[in-house]
Amino acid sequence: MLILGASGDLTKRLLLPGIGSLVVGGDESDLELLDGLTVVGSGRSDKADGWRDTVAAAFEQVGAEGDRVDAILASTKYVQADPTEPDDWKRLLDGVDGDLVVYFALPPSVVVKVAGILQDIDLPEHTVLAIEKPFGDDADSATELNEELVKVVPEGRIHRVDHFLGQRAALAMLATRFNNRLLESSWNADQIERVEIVYDEKLGLEGRAGYYDTAGALRDMLQSHLLQVLAVTTCEAPAGLDPEHLRDSLAAVLAVTQPWTGAPVFPDTDGPSRRARYTAGEIDGKSLPDYTAEEGVDPDHETETLAEIALEVDNARWAGVPFVLRSGKAIGDPANEIRVTYRPVRFRPDGQSGTGSAEVLRFGFKPPRIEFRFTSGGGDMPFQLDPVEVSGALPKSPVTEYGEVVRGVLGDDPTLSIRGDVAVQCWRIVQPILDAWQRGEVPLDEYPAGSGGPSSWS
Ligand SMILES: O=C1O[C@H](COP(=O)(O)O)[C@@H](O)[C@H](O)[C@H]1O
Fold first, then answer.
1. Strands (E), 351-451
2. CA-133 nearest atom, ligand 1
3. pLDDT, tens digit, for every residue of 181-235?
4. pTM of the shown model
5. For position 338, which CATH number holds?
6. Which of 1, 82, 219, 297 is 20 to 30 A away from residue 369, measured at CA?
7. Do residue 156 and residue 214 come from a single domain?
8. 201 lines ligand 1 (CB under 6 A)
């Protein structure tokens, strides 16, 4: 596995621990994937000296040890190279013997250049490309990227990485929906009133201005990860377990998804979106500066750190149900869950038909869990109603979300990666919102770090 852009944060924080987590929690077939694996890091800066320690620390972080870890540590190396220089590829591929994974932790403008170079290089017969987000900057650039990449390897060997497809909550959503009669029969607009997919975080910018200040919350989280979560929440049952079956189902539902056009979903706002940015504040006793005072931020960029959008899924199952996607940074007491709110019952014996507290089903991301709130009773009087909540933790796996990514990439199974047409659809869905923001039609509100968002939003 040749990691391009390996000196970045992602490799150290997520990708290498993901490999380690497969050593810890993988089954026999996962372990076989790791036999003979050589990890080569590469970047333009000279990190060769500390590279092995970086890999060792990442493995240690997830408790990975033993012969397999020793073998990976013994063979790993770092190659200082510029992948946009054709001549550097001789060094990058030096010693490659067998199957090859090229893992791109690089911006899209660089990926497209490298893809052009790879078209003229004699790569091993079995080469897989794994590409981190963002996949392009809009539908056109994502289309161009797709066109260049399929000139290198066939679509089935291109993994557009989205670690949210490896999140327990997303996997549980797929497993639960299609295997429980109660849910399966109520999973539609007749029964469900509203769905919210929320991923708020306490974290602020964390030194990532170089990337985040031109991305913002909408591109960083909603256009990519949360749209995939929406797709697994709304798709039709896949025809079977072939990777293309699920990918076809996800593509079909995203093709009919668009910004909400019904009655306003957000108070005081006609449009389907709102955005905001954090100001100075405190989280868990730690001060955070105003976003614009963070190192590397250009105050002229109108970068949002909190985005909320409403979408409609225009098909027979979901027409009329608003799907709200939200993600924010520097949020105190952050929620992260898929929240499904049912409609009130049509008839109640106490004359309160059509009212009452709704049933809410939640799939929590962190910690992974399922909760169900419904109306029950059991007090002194018949029909004395009380809300009840039942909840359960989802089975925990030592394999991290990036472990799932690595499993798919090394095992040549693209089920949990994004197909080219889907990547383009995701840009198509958010483009009208990005355009409205660009035209200044949606104000950039403010919220103090550590709060729940702008006070005017509640
Ligand atoms: O890809 C990203 O995801 C993280 C949130 O996911 P997590 O699994 O690390 O909780 C987000 O903080 C980051 O901004 C985004 O680029």
1. 360-364, 369-376, 386-393, 444-448
2. 1
3. 999 999 999 999 999 999 999 999 988 999 999 999 999 999 999 999 999 999 9
4. 0.96
5. 3.30.360.10
6. 219
7. no
8. yes
Task: Give the number of the atom of ligand 1 that is nearest the alpha carbon of residue 208.
Answer: 14
Residue 140 counted as domain residue: yes
- Size of the chain, expressed as the number of residues it contains: 458
* Contact assessment for residue 413 and residue 166, using Cβ atoms and an 8 Å cutoff: no
Q: What is the DSSP letter of 412?
A: T
**Ligand 1 close to Cβ of residue 446 (< 6 A):** no
pLDDT at 351: 83
> Tens of pLDDT along 319-332?
999 999 999 999 99
Residue 167 CA, ligand 1 centroid: distance in Å: 11
- Does the ipTM exceed 0.90? yes
Domain final residue, candidates 161, 192, 214:
161
Strand partners, 339: 196, 362
- What spacing in Å lies between the alpha carbon of 229 and ligand 1's midpoint? 14
Give yes or no for a contact between 133 and 164, defined as CB atoms under 8 angstroms apart: no
- Domain coverage including residue 190: 165-448
Q: Which of 14, 15, 167, 220 to mutate to test the pocket of ligand 1 (most atoms within 8 A of CB)?
A: 220
Residue 238 lies in a domain: yes
Q: Tokens 């946009």: give the residue.
A: 84
Q: Which atom of ligand 1 is nearest to the CA of 365?
A: 10
Closest CA to 168 of 412, 14, 393, 12: 393
What CA–CA distance (Å, rounded) separates 449 from 279? 6
Q: Are residues 104 and 134 in the same domain?
A: yes
